[in-house]
Amino acid sequence: MSSALYALGRWAFRARRAMLLIWVAVLAVLFTGAALLSEGTENSYSIPGTESQEALDALARTFPQVSGSSAQLIAVAPEGGSVTDADFESAVEDAATAIAAVPQVTSATSPYSSATSEAANIASDDSAVIVPIQLSVTTSEVLPSTADALQSAGRSLEAALPDGSEVAVGGQLFSQTSTGISVTELLGIAIAYVVLFITFGSLIAAGLPLITALLGVAASLSIVLAGTGFMTITSTTPLLALMLGLAVGIDYALFIVSRHQDQLKHGLDPEESAARAVATSGSAVVFAATTVIIALLGLTVAGIPFLTTMGVAAALAVAVAVLISLTLTPALLGFARWRVVAKRFRPGGTDAAPIEIVEHADASTATREDGSPVASSPLDLDPHATGRPGDAGQVEETAEEAARSIDDDDGEHPPARRGFFWGWVRTVTRWPAVTIVVIVGLLGLATLPAAHLRLALPDAGSLEEDAPGRIAYDLIAEHFGPGYNGPLIVTGTIIESTDPVALMDDLAASVAAVDGVAAVPLATPNETGDTGIVQVIPEGSPDSEATKALVAELRAMHDDWQEQYGVDLSVTGYTAAGIDISARLADALLPFGLLVIGLSLVLLAMVFRSIVVPVTAALGYALSVGAAFGLTSAVFVDGVLAGPLNVADVGTVISFMPIILMGVLFGLAMDYEVFLVSRMREDYVHHGDAESAVDTGFLSSARVVTAAAIIMFAVFAAFVPEGDASIQPIAFGLAVGVAIDAFVVRMSLIPAVLVLFGARAWWMPRSLDRMLPHFDIEGEGLAEEFALADWPSPGARFAIAAEGVRAAVPGLDDETDASPHLDAIVPPGAHLVLLGGTDGERTRLLLALGGRARVAAGRLKSVGFVVPPRASAVRARSALVRFTDSATALDRVRSALDARPELLLLDGVEEVGDPGVVGGIRSLLAEAGGGAAAGAVRRRPALTIVVAARDDDAAGRMLPEGAPSQRAHLAEPAAAFPADTAATLTTAG
């Protein structure tokens, strides 16, 4: 991957104007789509399969009059007055009649009507009345004009009532508000810019991550808003995408620009530096983004549609952020060139390497004072183009220089062991056991408040105090009790009853006798007498534990009531639905947690080839999540610092906060783990000193990780003071979670653990090492390509160059494997016959030459590409034919040649015994360009053929004449194999 990213970064740098125009065009299309398709967000939550949702769906079919959204009008009499006064009662009844005539309103029931039981909608002290309003459509389908008409009716009633009266319209319809962006959120961006400027010391370099992040957020939000035209998207979804897209967008570009800036300070040409920065830091960015995306898409395990939509939208924001970081960032670096570093590091500066920049039409090339070039491109997408490893004559940098510049903080540029971060790492690793105990203990204490974390969906009680819905909510709670803000509905099919009205009265009496029921204002069958509803007013508020217990109690009595009344009852309503959603989300936490922790173990084991690193990383993530839950519960449930933080509602946390926080924080934790520990592993692999590797890796990456974490914290924290009840706990949890994970876990706990384990921290069982795929996130494969750029001979081009190449044997350790090795130099258009060894040994070597088997030892280039780093490119340019009989042999060769390969691999030639078929194959190979003459006139490289054969005669009969042909007898491995030893080769033809 690093090689592909190198080519992408180099192309984006060169074609910077085209890249900029592409992104401008993409954004223009997305903005237009959002403007034309967006229908706004909707705060409607549902979970298919829950009791409440199934009951609501049934009511929509059998009792549509009560299946839509609802609202409540409360009228409060002036002090000393009574709602039973004639003028007050008359005005309220007139208002109810007027409201009933509003479009989409099914009914507006007067509290003075006999339809309500025991005047339940009149306060016990006659201080207030409630007018229940039923709508014919769901909340998301209510027209803005309908909502405005209801509020207008409330204002008209207040004007008609005696002075001092108070009227408010609220209820389910007005329990949600659309969220937006305030100045406080913009402050987070300003803080991010300051941090970037301090980190880079350049105004231009500091601005680049902000530009790419803002453009990425604009693109992802446009897609999300356009999606509202096709699906229901809650208002929290774009805000979550905004928060996450902005934070990771800045951080991803930060990592790339930081690597680029360091390389420029070491004298690398801007074009080459940008390409290498994308190849190295970009690889880590892709890995980190992939973990975030997988975690966010993993939210689908909850089986909740709106949560799935949130996860997909947030994953989209991350994907756009990484895409724009990898493409637009190098393009912007092309415009900035040397201006991203201080003048003293530029050509001619006091701290600059002695280089001179010469401008060309297509790109710039750096030269030293003696005229020799520095850091020209060693890689391109086309393996035969100028500057790719393999075209060694075009590579203008030695292998040693290339390898050093990839590992720019090692070798001749080790990080200085002084300053703040040196003191940090030495402090946390001086007594590693003490550090571990202290950190685990403190984070454990921070987790304790999570034990009473209460989850609920936001209702009108979490709105701003001056919102109409919040005013009505508070007035109802004051004059009637909190339960009136969250009525429940008990419903069932009564089609078998001979007296539906009497049945509903009996049911109402039974429900009213249940502990926790404050009132039963309504119990009625529908017009056809097949479905009945009982409206239940709980004693507790909608988000209280008492109401949750009441719902459970009513459902527990299902069997008793079915036996007594013959009715299959369900508990539903907006409040019950919220309880069901919270329960489903809570149940999803454990499987989701196991998913992300298991994912982290596998991914980090792939990257670091270690047991200790992934296990401690996963445990550290668990500590971070627990502490974030605990601190969020302390603030939003217990009210600690609720005033200074301007918390809108205390007592509960939005239901999907925990699972969202777990998903996002998992990805961010893996970011910091990768960027910190990868440098430590790199140093350990090079030098073998475990403790020194921790120090060196920490010093190499701590500055950038610190900047990234501060930026993340600032962006998330900016959404807390002015956010609504939905986004505040999520933003707070992410902010404290990022700070804890970055500074306490990754930068303190993990170094202490690695020092405590020493070299054992980098151990992995060989069997597991062979089983897990490799993932190169620091450009190690690219460094290997640079190191072999001039090998085997500067300026020469070979189809195959192999030295001591040994193919891996499944199930055997590479160090103890005694398989024969191969040494060969094969020019394009020539033939190579592999002889000697067993059938399996020849086949494995043949597959290794084609990038289809792992190389266990030696150096190998096939069709100009270094293997294994570019094995996929070799596979794409080669074809394999395995003969099993004469009948299918000709068709197999013809099919392979149809792909126009540069390298053709033939195995099992002895199986083709028919002379006519052998002759046909020989003719096909000659026609395809197997001969030197044919290759000379072809525009693409001549076809090179490699044959694995038991004897030379079988291969000779099949190969066309006229091309150089070599015989390689597989050599047994020597105890000490000289680098310049040649294989036994025989030239024929």
Secondary structure: elements and pairs:
Elements (H helix, E strand, L loop, with lengths): L1 H13 L1 H22 L13 H12 L7 E7 L9 H15 L4 E4 L19 E8 L8 H17 L5 E5 L12 H18 L2 H25 L8 H30 L4 H28 L7 H32 L18 E5 L4 E5 L4 E2 L24 H8 L13 H11 L1 H16 L7 E2 L11 H12 L8 E6 L6 H13 L4 E9 L5 E8 L6 H12 L1 H8 L3 E4 L1 H35 L3 H25 L16 E2 L2 H31 L2 H28 L10 H30 L8 H6 L8 H8 L12 E8 L14 E5 L4 E5 L3 H11 L5 E8 L2 E3 L3 H6 L1 E5 L6 H10 L4 E5 L7 H16 L1 H6 L6 E5 L3 H7 L6 E5 L14 E5 L1
Parallel strand pairs: 8-13, 16-21, 16-22, 19-20, 20-21
Antiparallel strand pairs: 1-3, 1-4, 2-3, 5-6, 6-7, 9-11, 9-12, 10-11, 14-15, 14-17, 17-18, 22-23
Helix pairs in contact: 1-2, 1-9, 1-10, 2-7, 2-10, 4-5, 6-7, 6-21, 7-8, 7-10, 8-9, 8-10, 8-21, 9-10, 9-20, 11-24, 12-21, 12-22, 13-19, 13-22, 18-19, 18-20, 19-20, 19-22, 20-21, 20-22, 21-22, 27-28
How does this model look, in words?
The protein is of the alpha+beta class and 989 residues long. The chain contains 30 helices and 23 strands. Strands 19-20-21-16-22-23 form a 6-stranded mixed sheet, sandwiched between helices. The chain is elongated. The protein starts with a helix and ends with a strand.
